[in-house]
Design brief:
about 270 residues; globular; about 15% strand; about 35% helix
Length: about 270
């Protein structure tokens, strides 16, 4: 990757339209990130005006990712991660959490959005002991993802497959399940699957807001019934407490007077491949 001033013989940095809001930049804004523009802030504020809980959903999804990665490294002994559909870097990225505990951890990020590719260098800051790489491959090409990941990861060793907020972008549910299965088929026994995605059945206001957003012509994101999110883990050994609303998945310790986490329309889980 180079800056806008491209070195001789180097590939030009991808261009993207900063006058049109982009879902990844809007999510970045909700998470408190800096890789967004006024148009994204305006779109994010418009959405949150209709449904203020979206910021909680975005931040709870990221907190689930952080807690699940900590479990994988500290308790399950995982040192390799394949994070597909990573989106823009913000805080508590997979490599930061994993290498903060085990510096030798190796992480491969996968996305194929030109705008995200332009920010990829922010993901490439690995510890000297480990490795972090970025591959430009579509979610719809599991075989290519695995082949590219194998250049950094040893896929004969247990690896965590991370799919955070990405499967809702696949309109056809059977295709989404096939993508998950094909990716898992390329990983050995002892590997893990981490999924968290928007859900139906918990928050009707969120469902109405998201359905309305999908009708605007923006890149749609489809909320799914919890049973369908659970089915992504078929044949795997779920880690307790199973598939739950993400604030309820192993919440961090809080004071005795702190309120219990409330369920939201975002469900996730973590499971081991036998």
């Amino acid at each position: 990757m180079t800056d806008h001033t491209t070195a001789p013989g180097a590939q030009a940095r991808p261009e993207f339209d900063t006058s049109v809001p982009h879902s990844a930049r809007i999510w970045n804004y909700w998470l408190g990130g800096k890789d967004n523009y006024a148009v994204d802030e305006a779109a994010g504020d418009a959405y949150s005006a209709v449904y203020p809980g979206i910021v909680t959903i975005a931040r709870s999804s990221r907190a689930f990712l952080r807690r699940s990665i900590r479990h994988l490294v500290a308790e399950a002994g995982i040192r390799q991660f394949l994070d597909v559909g990573t989106g823009l870097p913000t805080v508590d990225n997979t490599h930061e959490v994993a290498q903060g505990i085990a510096p030798e951890s190796r992480i491969v990020y996968v996305d194929n959005d030109p705008m995200i590719l332009a920010h990829a260098r922010a993901l490439l800051r690995s510890t000297p002991q480990g490795a972090t790489s970025y591959v430009d491959v579509s979610l719809y090409e599991p075989d290519r993802i695995l082949a590219a990941a194998a250049e950094t990861l040893d896929l004969t060793r247990p690896t965590a497959l991370v799919l955070s907020g990405i499967l809702g972008h696949v309109p056809d549910y059977d295709e989404a399940r096939s993508i998950v299965r094909r990716l898992l088929d390329g990983l050995p026994s002892g590997s893990y699957l981490s999924v968290n995605d928007g859900s139906r059945g918990t928050d009707p206001d969120y469902e109405r807001a998201q359905d309305g957003y999908n009708e605007t012509g923006a890149v749609p994101y489809f909320l799914r019934p919890v049973a369908r999110i659970e089915a992504f883990f078929d044949g795997l050994e779920l880690v307790e407490p199973g598939v739950v609303s993400v604030p309820l998945w192993r919440p961090e310790e809080s004071g005795a007077d702190a309120p219990a986490p409330a369920p939201i329309g975002q469900h996730g889980g973590l499971a081991r491949k036998p």
